[in-house]
TrEMBL record, chain A:
<feature type="transmembrane region" description="Helical">
    <location>
        <begin position="144"/>
        <end position="173"/>
    </location>
</feature>
<keyword id="KW-1003">Cell membrane</keyword>
<keyword id="KW-0520">NAD</keyword>
<feature type="region of interest" description="Disordered">
    <location>
        <begin position="254"/>
        <end position="280"/>
    </location>
</feature>
<feature type="region of interest" description="Disordered">
    <location>
        <begin position="181"/>
        <end position="204"/>
    </location>
</feature>
<dbReference type="Pfam" id="PF00499">
    <property type="entry name" value="Oxidored_q3"/>
</dbReference>
<comment type="similarity">
    <text>Belongs to the complex I subunit 6 family.</text>
</comment>
<feature type="transmembrane region" description="Helical">
    <location>
        <begin position="69"/>
        <end position="92"/>
    </location>
</feature>
<dbReference type="GO" id="GO:0008137">
    <property type="term" value="F:NADH dehydrogenase (ubiquinone) activity"/>
</dbReference>
From TrEMBL, chain B:
<keyword id="KW-1003">Cell membrane</keyword>
<keyword id="KW-0812">Transmembrane</keyword>
<comment type="subunit">
    <text>NDH-1 is composed of 14 different subunits. Subunits NuoA, H, J, K, L, M, N constitute the membrane sector of the complex.</text>
</comment>
<feature type="transmembrane region" description="Helical">
    <location>
        <begin position="60"/>
        <end position="83"/>
    </location>
</feature>
<keyword id="KW-0520">NAD</keyword>
<keyword id="KW-0874">Quinone</keyword>
<feature type="transmembrane region" description="Helical">
    <location>
        <begin position="6"/>
        <end position="23"/>
    </location>
</feature>
<keyword id="KW-0813">Transport</keyword>
<comment type="similarity">
    <text>Belongs to the complex I subunit 4L family.</text>
</comment>
């Protein structure tokens, strides 16, 4: 292994692994950018991160490979998925451009940046790879520990302060202190009566004898759906199903079927052509 | 295969991430693209560690991961509180200084 890691070229196995998994990583990155829904982006990114973990292992960074899977795909991506669920899974990104030509210019900038970066690497003289075999001789984790606790010990201490600050910051940002006393049920009832609107409880969702799902708005006597019947969370996410037109559609389908059964030819507009079309 | 190819891959992933930050407007996806860029940097660090034959690059990559974890915690907290006040995760809607 150390001989291979030190060599100028890698083994055939590693080359094969690189080309196969590298393709997967690039496809995952592209899917992260171009998928419309945030959940799909998160899953693609998790795939790319797992591939990167394999690359760390192949490069002799055994500790980092495991940490990548545990911390990144295990913790960070799950945190992302939690937030996606909080914010709303179905909230797809609108694809309308708000600044004209922004997307084209961004793509152009990206391509230019990539070309510069790749050309810079191509021009650098990176001939001899020393390989990590020598450095990993006493074990990768032991070597890293020796470096972290001697040369980088100050940075390591600062890292502890950073983590504590981040944890406290996240708590401060998301925690909402209740500044006033919670109103009791009696006070709420009195307020409802005083305001004079919706004195009884809100109407229940669903259309009786047809649907009773919570995301289906109940129909008013004139057949229009009432948004009041659906819970506020679903209303704000725009996840209301409208079934008010279903009865008419059912009737139309029934009429169509009966016409097919009776083999009645529908009155086509062919017989009622306009005079100028019939003359052609 | 020359191990330099790992550097090319890292550059490619970084470019894709940077383009995503410019193109997307959903704050969560923008954040994921930033994570992609950080990961690409880590791959470059690990490859440089192999190039030089010492573990300094891996230590730096380790610190990058720690900073990324802290950044994710604070960033997602900001996104959640933005969503609470604006009911949208689009970066276009967060155009005012005062919430």
């Amino acid at each position: 292994m150390s001989a291979q890691l030190a060599a100028y070229t890698t083994s055939t196995g590693e080359a094969f692994q690189f080309w196969v998994l590298g393709t997967v990583a690039v496809i995952g990155a592209l899917c992260t950018v171009f998928m419309r829904k945030a959940v799909h982006s998160a899953l693609s990114l998790a795939g790319t991160m797992i591939v990167l973990a394999v690359f760390y292992l192949a490069n002799g960074a055994y500790f980092l490979g495991v940490v990548q899977i545990v911390v990144y795909t295990g913790a960070i991506m799950m945190l992302f998925l939690f937030v996606v669920m909080l914010v709303g899974v179905t909230a797809a990104d609108s694809l309308k451009e708000t600044i004209r030509g922004q997307r084209l210019l961004a793509l152009l900038c990206g391509v230019g940046f990539g070309v510069l970066l790749l050309a810079g690497i191509a021009n650098a003289s990176l001939k001899d790879f020393a390989g990590t075999g020598q450095a990993n001789a006493n074990g990768n984790v032991e070597g890293l520990a020796a470096l972290i606790f001697t040369k980088y010990v100050f940075a390591f201490e600062i890292t502890g302060a950073l983590l504590i600050t981040a944890a406290v910051g996240a708590m401060v940002l998301t925690h909402r202190e209740r500044t006033e006393r919670a109103r009791t049920q009696r006070e709420l009832a009195e307020q409802r009566v005083r305001e004079g609107k919706h004195v009884p409880p809100l109407p229940a969702p669903g259309v009786y004898a047809r649907h009773n799902a919570v995301d289906i708005a109940g129909l008013l006597p004139d057949g229009t759906p009432s948004e009041l019947t659906v819970s506020r969370t679903l209303r704000e996410r725009g996840q209301i199903r409208d079934v008010s037109t279903q009865a008419i559609n059912d009737l139309r389908a029934l009429e169509q079927r009966s016409e097919d059964r009776l083999e009645r030819t529908p009155i086509e507009p062919e017989t009622f052509k306009r005079p100028e079309e019939a003359s052609k | 295969m020359n191990p330099v190819n790992y550097l090319y891959l890292a550059a490619l992933l970084f470019t894709i991430g940077a383009t995503g930050v410019l193109i997307r407007r959903n704050a969560i996806v923008v954040f994921m693209c930033v994570e992609l860029m950080l990961n690409a940097c880590n791959l470059a660090f690990v490859t440089f560690s192999r190039l030089h034959g010492n573990l300094d690059g891996q230590v730096i990559a380790f610190f990058t991961m720690v900073v990324a974890a802290a950044e994710v915690v604070v960033g997602l907290a900001i996104i959640v509180s933005l969503f609470r006040t604006r009911h949208s995760a689009s970066v276009d809607d967060a155009s005012l200084m005062k919430l």
